[in-house]
Design goal:
The chain is mainly α. 78% of the residues lie in helices and 0% in strands.
Length: 287
């Protein structure tokens, strides 16, 4: 299929403004409906989900040498835990409904894309949630226990004649911490997707990324120092994956450029073959 066929396909899919608005309303209804259903499910199981999120705190408690498996969290306002459950349900509903939301966005914009553009866009729809979940898993299984271990190690639990200083986190603050970490890592893990898309449209090159490698490393450690507690292990825990993802982004951009160059060479070879004298002579014969 050539470029003319692609243009005809886009022209056939064009519709008046009112039809676009009706289509947009339909996609919004599906996206909002998916979020609302996921929100209700998460709110119904909010306590179970919160208990699941407390497990990294329990791991950190064992790492800190505390004998009790029970961890205590408090809330200081009557409505605090209720609103914490609502925030948790909204966050969980958005994560669960994201595939449906992304699908509706894609279906709305797909008629305006060429066939090859639609084929190129689909892998990113698959890679984006996988990378986000990978970042969330790193937070849950490594980073949150490491952060809580750092805070628990600051407790003062000694003889009776010493002041006892114990960590009793508020439920809202603990949820805010783990949500912030999940969002931070999830967005950082989108770096290869964003850079590959920018490389596809020609706004970014692998050489430009490679030239800025030193600056990117410094920025990675600065961001890690801002988002994490002031201990080397936690800072490296965020900075190292960021640097690795940056290198993956450079490799992805090079793959895109290599494929584009191969397509360009193939197109030039096809044009040269069509315009060669041998092809012209082959098309004419004796009367």
């Amino acid at each position: 299929m050539n470029a003319r066929d692609d243009e005809d396909e886009v022209e056939k899919s064009s519709a008046p403004l009112m039809e676009h608005l009706i289509e947009l309303r339909s996609r919004l209804i599906w996206a909002i409906g998916a979020f609302f259903v996921a929100f209700l499910v998460c709110f119904f199981f909010a306590k179970e989900i919160f208990n699941l999120l407390v497990i990294p705190f329990q791991w950190a408690s064992r790492w800190a040498g505390l004998n009790s498996e029970q961890v205590d969290l408090i809330y200081t306002a009557p409505q605090e835990f209720f609103f914490t459950q609502i925030k948790l349900a909204m966050f969980g509903g958005l994560v669960i409904a994201f595939p449906m939301i992304a699908t509706q966005v894609y279906k709305f914009v797909a008629p305006g894309l060429y066939r090859n553009e639609r084929r190129a866009f689909v892998p990113f729809l698959i890679a984006s949630p996988i990378l986000f979940l990978s970042g969330a898993a790193l937070v849950y299984f490594f980073f949150t226990p490491m952060v809580m271990w750092f805070f628990l190690s600051m407790q003062q639990v000694g003889p009776e004649n010493e002041v006892q200083i114990s960590l009793l986190p508020r439920v809202s603050e603990y949820l805010g911490l783990i949500m912030t970490l999940i969002l931070s890592f999830g967005l950082v893990f989108q770096l290869p997707v964003v850079t590959t898309l920018l490389a596809r449209v020609g706004l970014l090159s692998s050489q430009a990324l490679a030239d800025k490698r030193k600056v990117a490393i410094v920025i990675a450690f600065v961001v890690a120092a801002v988002l994490t507690p002031p201990d080397p292990v936690s800072q490296i825990g965020l900075a190292l994956p960021t640097i690795i993802l940056y290198e993956i982004s450079i490799w992805s951009a090079r793959m895109v450029e290599r494929k584009r160059e191969e397509q360009r060479q193939a197109a030039e070879a096809a044009e040269a073959e069509e315009s060669s004298p041998a092809s012209a002579d082959a098309g004419t014969g004796p009367a």
